[in-house]
Amino acid sequence: MATRPVTDTTPQAPAAPNPSFSPLYQQIKDLITRGLQGGEWKPGELIPSESELARRFGVSQGTVRKAVDELAAEGLLLRRQGRGTFVSTHHEERVKFRFLRLVPDGEGMAPQPMERQFLECKRVRATHEVARALGVKPGDGLTQVRRLLLLQGRPVVYEEIYLAGAAFRALTAERLESYRGPLYALFESEFSTRMVRAEERLRAVNATPQEAQWLQVDPGQALLLVERVSFSYSDRAVEFRRGLYNTQHHHYRNELS
Amino acid sequence: MATRPVTDTTPQAPAAPNPSFSPLYQQIKDLITRGLQGGEWKPGELIPSESELARRFGVSQGTVRKAVDELAAEGLLLRRQGRGTFVSTHHEERVKFRFLRLVPDGEGMAPQPMERQFLECKRVRATHEVARALGVKPGDGLTQVRRLLLLQGRPVVYEEIYLAGAAFRALTAERLESYRGPLYALFESEFSTRMVRAEERLRAVNATPQEAQWLQVDPGQALLLVERVSFSYSDRAVEFRRGLYNTQHHHYRNELS
DNA sequence: GAGTGGTCTAGACCACTCC
DNA sequence: GAGTGGTCTAGACCACTCA
């Protein structure tokens, strides 16, 4: 890793107006992000202290602080006073439901001990729709996973998951079955792929006979269709997910601000 | 407005460990929020400069900066380099679709020139469900608005809106009809109520015959039910909204991070 | 007690907007 | 050119964690 920010002048030296001006802290952000992406610091690990990073990058601690602040706000890092700054991970309890926004209707925010039932894991070719979402060519190879999420033995979510990237060739039904913990934690630990953010599109649809059977509802029953594209570092689209939620006793929770 | 932060010691003076410790910038945030809430600075207006606020509150500019930064991140203020800091408003183009997350299916982010059709505006008594959402007593008086949103002449959204607070007694169908611009902008300008954040619960439901008629779809058609509670300053619940979205050619867009 | 992040200050200079 | 927010620095002290 470089020991100097990407700039021609020392920080204090007066510089001519720069048309492609990029603040120092932004460059530090990029350097840290590169370290995360390259695996220098792995999810769950402690990164160097602010003063250490300031020394390493040749900037003041305040500048490192601003960079780390923003990365923490974006969810890539996690600051803990007195302990240090950690790389975010899907293994933490705190963030397990950051991506699954479905919660039981009762007011009590009961954490949901969801059971999982994997139906299938195979290699498929990308359809036009999935290819567009993932930014690959139609016909390219993808890994597909189909599964159910159940609450108290009753199916609540049916999902089809499409994964891009050669790494996921190695994913097997056996590995999915045996793994305890969130899917994204598995991807992180064994496929070096951390999901950083996602975009979702929601629709209400009437259950087809097939879908009705999977979710044990009547055909025509209204279901919440959730299409998600998940991105890893550097906005690389990695996963496309098509989920059908039975919202008779659950709802999708969202906050606007 | 106070000219000193709420603290017994001068900022530099060493203080005994404080069990109910609150950082200075947090106190400044509260003071600014109180100014917004009390109408000292109205939506769209310019607030004093950082150095002016620092002088007024007797703290350093850096402390004011941190307070304003957070208020801007929360959407209450809007910073514009070279011009100053403004109170956020629903009148701005930029934030018009911050609360309505429904967008047309086409990739092109075509701004939607939605027509509105007000069906009714009357005083009603709060049902248990609405009372709980708004934190009022069942049976309390509320103002109810029912309306349709249309795109190219076709209804896409049916909404029932419940407004708490004596101010909204004065709301009339005529005023709604004649007002150009978002509903929240009207509330801001004429009812001194700025919506700051909202919580939504989404479900898929089958259209009742009545609902099907409003939205010109077949009975049983899957619709997206969006229940929203909107909050003004100090987390005061002001509005409950029950919306039915036809998602055949639109979808609800959400970002996770 | 040592080390970490969190707060606060003071001062400098830069980029942007408007007169 | 004056005024605003934006960046950057240097140094001090505080709150928290852990050994």
Descriptive tags:
six-stranded antiparallel sheet, alpha+beta, 2 domains, 257 residues, three-stranded antiparallel sheet, Chorismate lyase, homodimer, DNA-binding, Arc Repressor Mutant, subunit A, globular, 11 strands
Global geometry of chain A: globular
Query: What sequence of helices (H) and strands (E) makes up the elements of chain A?
Result: HEHHEEEEHEEHHEHEEE
Q: Note the quaternary state here.
A: homodimer
**What gap, in angstroms, lies between the N and C termini of chain A?**
38 Å
How would you sum up this structure, described in words?
Two copies of one chain form a homodimer. The first copy, chain A, has 257 residues and is of the alpha+beta class. The first copy, chain A, has helices at residues 24-37, 50-57, 61-73, 128-134, 173-178, 183-191, 209-215, and strands spanning 46-47, 77-80, 84-87, 102-104, 115-125, 141-151, 154-163, 197-206, 222-232, 236-245, 250-256. The first copy, chain A, folds into two domains: 24-87, Winged helix-like DNA-binding domain superfamily/Winged helix DNA-binding domain (Arc Repressor Mutant, subunit A, Orthogonal Bundle), CATH 1.10.10; 102-252, 3-Layer(aba) Sandwich (Chorismate lyase), CATH 3.40.1410.10. In chain A, 25% of the residues lie in helices and 32% in strands. In chain A, the strands form three sheets. Chain A has a six-stranded antiparallel beta sheet with strand order 5-6-7-10-9-8. In chain A, strands 1-3-2 form a three-stranded antiparallel beta sheet. A two-stranded antiparallel sheet of chain A has the order 4-11. In chain A, α1 (24-37) packs across α3 (61-73) and α2 (50-57) packs across α3 (61-73). The longest helix of chain A has 14 residues, at 24-37. The interface between A and B is medium-sized, with 33 and 33 residues. Chain A binds a DNA duplex (19 and 19 nucleotides) through residues 11-12, 14-15, 17, 21, 23-25, 49-51, 59-63, 65-66, 68, 79-85.
